[in-house]
Amino acid sequence: MKSKILSYIFLSAIVPHIIACSYTADYIEGALTNRASFSISAHYEAGTGVVVEWNANPDNDSFAGYEIYMTEEPNNEFADYIVVGACYSISSSSYFQDDGTLDNPSQTQFIHTSLPSSGIYFYRVGVIEWDERDYDGDGKDDKKPSSPNESLYESYTNIAEISGSAMVEIP
Amino acid sequence: MKLLHNYKIYVTILFCIHLCLLNPVVYAQNVYEASSLHNSASRSQIVQQIFYQRWDTIFSNYLHFDAYINVNWVFNFYVNTYNRGTGQKEAVPMRLVRTFSDVAMLFSVYTPVTETPDETQPVDITDVTTFRKPWVNNSILLGFTACGYHYGLTRSVEINRGSAGSETATDYAFSQFFDDIVAITAVFVPYVTLHAGIVFNQQIEPNEDGTLDYNFDPSTITKRYFTSLSLYNTLTWRSTAAKDRMESYDVSLNITQLLSITTSIPSYIPQTTIGYKQYHKYNDEPYDPVWVSTASGKSNTTSDSLKQHATLYTYYTTLSKNFGNFYIAASIELQHVDRTLVDKRTEQKVLLPMMRIWWAKAGYDLMDNPGWDFIVWLGVNKYYDPAISYHSKHSDNDTGGWFAMIDGTAPYITLTIKASYNDASELDRLVEAVNKFVIEASASFRI
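The joint structure predicted for all components is written out below.
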């Protein structure tokens, strides 16, 4: 009985610290605000383009694809980002590339060839997930549609995770 | 329509209070270089304040378990930041994020057998009076707490996903601060309440790309030790010690509670607490707005051995009273400092006024059931700190502020949403929040 009480007290002392630490609160806020959560690399290769590489671990059950973003103006780290790569044709920008391999969760590379004029640009990678909703009309929410298409992708996806920025100088 | 009409009235009242309390200020924001967030002693005070607030809630509601989370955003911090694209520094708008989480448990280790056990009342989960009852005198309770506070600046990034819409992401910017408490609590009802714990202060630099690698590196963690002893819930001593010195202590006396031990208190007497605090507030650090004793020979690179310290002494009294569903409370805090303070910008002596803080608040509970509250609060205040003019366009060092809050309580959950502008409690935690709107949301689950 005594050892049971002691183990109970010991667990009670340990469990709260695992649940309630400063990291936990920050993690929740980070999830609410799409905090950059993984790093990527990007570099320019003459004759090839900008090679963006990442190593993410998406949730396969709801994974919709990767998207690649680039700052919309040169030489400004704090500029807004535009999408330059996705598995569907979701942008009319001249820098955008429709790349079907980006719907593969094990994909780790994108080569950006539709490049802007020279300057310093910043790239990011987004992990896109399907919204949880009733896609097949059976009254139950689904993690992803059974037959994804561009229209559904445009309407029912969101950024689940986003990378930090990687700087590239395009000559 | 009636709701909309009421809403307009509340907004109008708030706006009027806002205009009345503000000094004529310029709304342009200052740009920050150093931040008092680097002051781990001050941060330790803040995380302890919340720790004690949670335990006040636990004791006053006879809880055995309390899990609490709080998210606080301060907008429009303009910070001089290096732009890797331009190669130059520029003022970049950032958001200060403060998050707090807490889990506390309280167990009855020993409960004396009472001669007249009250087991006749059936338990009704919607009525807290049937399942939350005061602890029996001479009971022994043991509690454990873990809580943590994260502070840091984040920068918003707009992401245009083409025809899939736009979203916002955030990056960590500048140092991130993680303060954690592990504490044990022992109670001998109603005579003694004891808290003892350790505060772990950790500072982590984010990566250049805006991400952060969490790492638990003992060599970078500073520790502080705190204790609190309360006798008869009347006389309370709280102290914090760093490795080599006592950093602060606070002694308070609940007058109403003291009188109630020996006599019955008339219902018109408010709950009255008086107290005394002392705290090593000014330490010749780069983030301090003043030098201690003299400016001569000092700079922001002064070595630790040459730094001087000034102690701030404060004396406070707080009154609170409820009239049915209507709650009011007010407090004043007086101050003096033991050393001369010199403004870093002008090198002129800083004269601290006697009044440091006053605040008053009023709330109305729209529900009238035990354990169920929906209280609308409004509060006003005045706050003095020598850093006010340093971090804003104020010509002097005091400022008026306000807060509005809705506070909902059900038997097992609570939810609070608060908006404030120059609220004294916010400025006391972080004076750089002057002239900025603060939004805070918190929730708790309790048993």
